[in-house]
């Protein structure tokens, strides 16, 4: 059950990350590149503690996941600057359901476990339903065809990324944490290369990328993104099903709801809806014990 600690930490880092560009209003393409470079700089001192598996699939999987995450981050930062960080949490239930279903296809033993434990399955079903209902109430003002058409495909690809991560990163050995660190580093290296190429092709490289404001935003999002992604990978590797970790991310808009109310900012969210989302995570935890 240690995975839930990492999953909740991931949701918190993901929430703060989602809020940053609402404040800084940096070009999403540029900030994705700068934040990836900063994340690599933060990881470099940990290279001596990393493990580098001999299996080529580890690196090809890391590269694939990196490309998926890169697209998601660009969209997330762009939506954050246009609207607010909570918008990016709308499609989290789709990500969770996708990861849950894909994992059942990958691991037939998991399907058998749920078939033999209907009470657990009912609890998980209740958690999903309550999370979707609570989240739809919490962000009812942000749910529209345009946002959903953008976020649902991202959610599906994130689900694939979670499953691929769980398959290739070793679990239950002393190599797990070193392998997670190397997996995360490869992700950010690929992200930097991909975004660097995109920026050059789109001719979006300019002096603003070196401005103190962009560099400050890059350092903050680099650290938050690194912590959020490292805790996500750790939780996914340790959890029985990667969908559990994705479902825990429904807490992202709850964290932002709490933050906005603490800052006395105008927020149309419902406290009752936030409570429902929290209850869904509690049911998830109880159902997986």
Helicity level, as a percent range?
A: over 70%
Question: What is the CA-based Rg, rounded?
Answer: 18 Å
Largest sheet: none
Low-pLDDT runs of 5+ residues are: none
Total helices: the number is 12
Strand content: under 5%
What gap, in angstroms, lies between the N and C termini?
7 Å
The H-and-E topology, N to C, reads as HHHHHHHHHHHH
Descriptive account of the structure:
The chain has 289 residues and is mainly alpha-helical. It has one domain (3-287). It is 77% helix and 0% strand. The chain has helices at 3-24, 28-43, 56-82, 92-106, 108-115, 118-138, 145-168, 176-201, 212-238, 242-248, 251-262, 271-287. The radius of gyration is 18 Å and the shape is globular. The chain starts with a helix and ends with a helix.
């Amino acid at each position: 059950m240690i995975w839930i600690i990492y999953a909740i930490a991931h949701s918190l880092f993901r929430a703060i990350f989602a809020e940053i560009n609402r404040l800084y209003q940096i070009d999403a393409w540029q900030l994705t590149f700068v934040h990836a470079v900063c994340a690599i700089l933060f990881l470099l001192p940990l290279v001596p503690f990393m493990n580098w598996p001999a299996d080529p699939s580890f690196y090809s999987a890391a590269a694939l996941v990196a490309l998926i995450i890169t697209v998601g981050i660009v969209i997330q930062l762009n939506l954050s600057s246009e609207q607010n960080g909570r918008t990016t949490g709308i499609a989290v239930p789709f990500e969770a359901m996708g990861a849950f279903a894909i994992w059942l296809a990958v691991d037939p033993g998991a399907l058998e476990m749920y078939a033999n434990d209907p009470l657990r399955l009912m609890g998980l079903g209740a958690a999903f339903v309550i999370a979707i209902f609570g989240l739809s109430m919490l962000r009812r003002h942000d749910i529209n065809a345009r946002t959903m058409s953008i976020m649902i495909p991202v959610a599906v690809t994130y689900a694939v990324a979670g499953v691929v991560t769980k398959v290739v990163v070793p679990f239950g050995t002393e190599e797990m944490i070193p392998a997670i660190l190397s997996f995360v580093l490869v992700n950010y290296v690929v992200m930097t290369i991909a975004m660097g190429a995109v920026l050059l092709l789109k001719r979006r490289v300019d002096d603003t990328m070196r401005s103190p404001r962009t560099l400050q935003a890059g350092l903050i999002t680099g650290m938050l993104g690194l912590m959020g992604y490292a805790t996500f990978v750790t939780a996914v590797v340790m959890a029985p099903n990667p969908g559990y970790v994705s479902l825990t991310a429904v807490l992202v808009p709850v964290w932002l709801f709490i933050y906005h109310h603490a800052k006395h900012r105008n927020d149309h969210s419902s406290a009752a809806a936030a409570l429902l989302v929290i209850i869904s995570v509690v049911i998830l935890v109880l159902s997986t014990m």
